[in-house]
Design brief:
This protein has 385 residues and is an alpha/beta fold. Helices cover 42% and strands 8% of the residues. It folds into 3 domains: 90 residues, no CATH class; 138 residues, Rossmann fold (3-Layer(aba) Sandwich); 123 residues, 3-Layer(aba) Sandwich (Rossmann fold), CATH 3.40.50. The longest helix has 18 residues. It is globular.
Length: 385
């Protein structure tokens, strides 16, 4: 048998580098990425092979592996060469999305269409963006207001997740914070859309929000989603949006430390905290949520295996929340089992994607009678009386 040599496609490799995936050139194929990837706990996903294909310009853009990576950054923090797989995958998806070289998964295509048309991934009316707050007496943010509270699209449109935004508002009121919200003049932060490769839609969303923030005189933004936090803090400045951005876990710890928020009611539960990839590996925020939980009277905090820098992703990042994941391949199922094994009755999160995935796993695994999933703001709101 004659082995035919591969012809390297330098044009495609250069295209991927221009799209932001150039760290593939640093890879020396050690395989740490594949060994680290959480997908290999449930199925085979050869990260090293995909990086090598990108380096040679020989990517099969029709391969489902282009859409598999959750961009959890576990491989990136362990890579001895500084290869950033999330940037490579975003470049691959950007090539598919903007050049039309392959098909976008149907569920993700619908989500992109929703965001582009009405400004949120759930496809809900833009004018209903503030409906969650109708009975809460929240003012519209105007210049001079201390803080803009910006909840995630999921937390204002999804019936189950609305409770998180409402709990956050309850806390802000009890702490005496001068805050307001913006209404139908803002849209999705665009984080998942950018990771799904649609750069043009991301930039359109960004400009809409930057203009709205600037017009209202926004200086400080508090968010309850790590995805909004990462995007506003690290990506909006690229396009001229410079604001002080604080995640709610950081804000809670400050309020407690300053004595502005008193936690007096006992919450006698054994809980464990699941680190969000976007809050943890992306931002290095590990201690703040744990310190907040330790401030809750009566609460017992126990650690999951694979925590902090080594935490397992919930599976919702990088557009995966909007794509179907087969039963038996869901990372969230693993985390629920781990939480049960350490005797926790509550799995605590600080991310709307984590909330959605873990709640789904609790239901599909028939574990609702033994474990709950709660956002950290819900426990703090309960403890504040």
């Amino acid at each position: 048998m004659v082995v035919q040599p591969l012809t390297v496609d330098l044009e495609t490799a250069d295209l991927l580098e221009e799209a932001g995936g150039g760290t593939f050139r640093l890879c020396y194929q050690c395989g740490i990425c594949t060994g680290s990837c959480p997908w290999n706990l449930v199925r085979k996903f050869d990260v090293r092979r995909l990086i090598h294909q990108a380096r040679l310009g020989l990517v099969d853009f029709e391969d489902e592996d282009v859409w598999t990576c959750v961009m959890c950054k576990l491989c990136a923090v362990r890579c001895p060469q500084g290869v950033v797989m999330s940037d490579i995958v975003r470049a691959l998806r950007r090539t598919v999305t903007e050049l039309g070289v392959a098909k976008i998964p149907d569920s993700l295509r619908i989500t992109i269409k929703n965001v582009s048309a009405v400004g949120n991934p759930l496809g809900e009316p833009r004018e209903a963006r503030a409906d969650w707050a109708k009975d809460l007496g929240i003012k519209t943010y105007t210049k001079g207001t201390e803080t803009l509270y910006f909840p995630c699209c999921y937390q204002i449109y999804d019936p189950s997740a609305k409770r998180v935004a409402r709990a956050a508002v309850n806390i802000l009121k009890k702490a005496g914070i001068d805050f307001g919200i913006l209404r139908d003049n803002v849209v999705c932060c665009g984080e998942s859309i950018r990771k799904a490769g649609n750069e043009s839609v991301f930039q359109s969303l960004t400009q809409t929000n930057i203009n709205a923030f600037a017009e209202a005189g926004v200086e400080k933004i508090v968010v309850t989603s790590p995805h909004c936090y990462h995007t506003f803090k690290d990506e909006y400045p690229e396009l001229g949006g410079n604001f002080k951005v604080i995640h709610f876990t950081q804000y809670l710890l400050d309020l407690i430390g300053q004595g502005r928020l008193s936690l007096t009611k006992e919450v006698n539960r054994k809980v464990t905290y699941a680190d969000s990839c976007c809050l943890g590996r992306y931002q290095g925020i590990y201690d703040e949520p744990r310190e907040v939980l330790r401030s809750v009277p009566g609460l017992e905090l126990v650690e999951l295996p694979y925590n902090r820098e080594n935490s397992i992703c919930c599976g919702g990042c990088a557009g995966r929340l909007w794509m179907e994941t087969k039963k038996g391949e869901r990372f969230a199922d693993i985390r629920i089992e781990q939480a049960l094994n350490i005797g926790a009755s509550v799995l605590v999160v600080a991310c709307p994607y984590c909330l959605a995935n873990y709640e789904d796993s609790v239901l599909t695994m028939n574990k609702a009678d033994v474990i709950e999933v709660k956002d950290i703001s819900e426990l703090v709101s309960e403890a504040s009386g």
